[in-house]
Amino acid sequence: MENRYKTALVTGASSGIGRMTAKHLADQGYKLILVARREERLLALKEELGADISCHIIASDLRDTAAVRQAIETLPEGFRSIDVLINNAGLAAGTEPAQNAEWNDWEEMISTNCMGLSNITHVLLPGMVKRNCGHIVNIGSVAGIYAYRGGNVYGATKAFVEHFSRGLKADLLGTQVRVSNISPGMVGECEFSLVRYRGDTKKAEAVYNQVEPLDPSAIAECVVWCISRPAHINILNMEVMATCQAPGGLAVSPKE
Ligand code: 8X3
After folding, report:
1. Mind listing the pLDDT tens digit for each residue in 99-125?
2. 186 close to ligand 1 (CB < 6 Angstrom)
3. How many other CB atoms sit within 10 Å of the CB of residue 174?
4. Which of 30, 31, 20, 42 minimizes the C-alpha distance to 219?
5. Structural domains in the chain plus CATH codes
């Protein structure tokens, strides 16, 4: 099937789901704009994708909303009509109960997962509507659906992502612009847990010990599937868990 869309922007493209999504989109012949903080990783990915793939990189922290805006508003010729936005960048920081959490962690999650995502969406949306063509894929999390201990602000930011997606869908009624929210559960082969445990490799590795989590490619395939549905079909929500994971975190505390 020929792609209706030609150009995609992927945030958090330097690793994990973002990197794998970029590779899958490159396989489908997309022109790519890759956004992430680590320039050297983006350059390495660009090289790996090969000279046949048109690829522009933006090495920027999504929390720097003004810099991201400027980079998008001054994209080189040939990259300005973005059809697909993959809002993948995001992080979990810490697993402490809310009463013991670090404020900086909360601030970083809110400013990346909510502010960064909203900013880039706000910049790209008018063009999509004007061209009456586009697809926004937000990467949420099962943590935004099921509350678990230590998930506090991380889960809340992902609930924001899901509800924002529904709100966008409501506002975009009558246009050909589609919105999907994909909520993955535990994903291995990425830096998610390493970041969450602030670089503590032992704790991060323990999360995946003796289990078979999703891999980034599984979610990249979901992204590609959503955007390649016929134009009259909008997959609004996908919840994807590894077989070894399940919700069910209700807890009680014994009487004193
Ligand atoms: C993270 C998924 O299951 O680790 O987005 O909370 S989980």
Report:
1. 999 999 999 999 999 999 999 999 999
2. yes
3. 8
4. 20
5. 7-183+215-240 (3.40.50.720)
